[in-house]
Amino acid sequence: MKKYCNPKKDNWVSICERPLYDNTQIKNIVNDIFADVKTNGDKALINYTKKFDNIDIKEIGIDLEKIDISEINIDSELKEAIDIAFKNIYKFHESQLFDSKKIETSKGVFCWQDKRPIENVGLYIPGGTAPLFSSVLMLAIPAMIAKCKKVILCTPPEKNGNINKAILYSAKLCNVNTIINIGGAQAIAAMSLGTENVPKVNKIFGPGNQYVTSAKLHSIDYNTAIDMPAGPSELLVLADSKANPNYVASDLLSQAEHGPDSQVILVSLCKVLIEKVEKALKNQSKTLERIDFVNQSISNSKLIYFENKEEAVEFINEYAPEHYIINVKDETYFIENLVNAGSVFIGNYTPESAGDYASGTNHTLPTNGNAKQYSGVNLDSFMKTITFQKISKKGLINISKTVETMAEAEGLQAHKNAVTIRINDIKNE
Q: Residue 32 sits in which domain range?
């Protein structure tokens, strides 16, 4: 890990850079996949599953309505853990439901807004080295609460051709009734374009590798919205002498094991703590199974010392971390002065992994500095806000002069006339 001591602001932009990869070739491959899926539909999806996953699938799609939840054989302890996580995540997202409020802006002029679900949504759930059944809960639960009409879940099959049992169980809990056994960029293309057995959706959610991310960005060209431009996972830990170095190290490693392009940052107000964390990282990493990923991620990561909290918080807002752990004595200062972050974890006993699985907050979050302009996935992500207005005769009289004057000033005579005609009729009643 690279070390910095009171880095000058001129260097912050370069320090905040994430691992960069030339994705020109990836974009070209994704473009070809979209073109193929558009022309050949399901046939292309089957071919890509054979080519990229080395799996022969005979048909596309699994009807979960035909699978009883009791038939999905997973370890009882895991099943209980998923059930508890479901309850917590549901409770937190249900609390985000919106109560419409009608406002009288002028006498007789009533305005309000209401929310409606996005009708058709697609959820992408990675498989591969780590089948992310937790992401099913994070995406399908708010979709269920929002009452989205159709929820499609795409996930790659395992080597035996079947869908991971924990993914099946989680999907069933969340009332997802259609699973598409396709992964990668081809799954995103299918949900963007529609094929014989994959419906086109209005919005796509979910994490993925560089190919999936590139495909999601490309799907926008096909009138398909996405949750956010998500990249490799990242974590920034803020710690001082109050923090337990073993806890800090464990948090950094928990994020580093996601993949070789993940990044972890330690910002500290204590030089001694940095030294202790370095030692703890070496000791704890020895026992990790995904040590290759960890080592590559650590090489992209940084240890940064600031002697004053003002510069520390300014740097953190510039970095705009996906995950942000605040583990300092004066946590109130850093909370109140926070501007940019995906999700925040406070104190010695709030590990980032709790938010990944079971505290209740959503783990689908903006990366690569996008927390400056994007929120993490929440209930609103699955809904649209529609504005309403109703104006009485008296109300139109009250604002008619304002509308007529502004329309005329903009040179829009028909806009003015739409009011004037009504006002003249009212006067002649």
A: 24-226
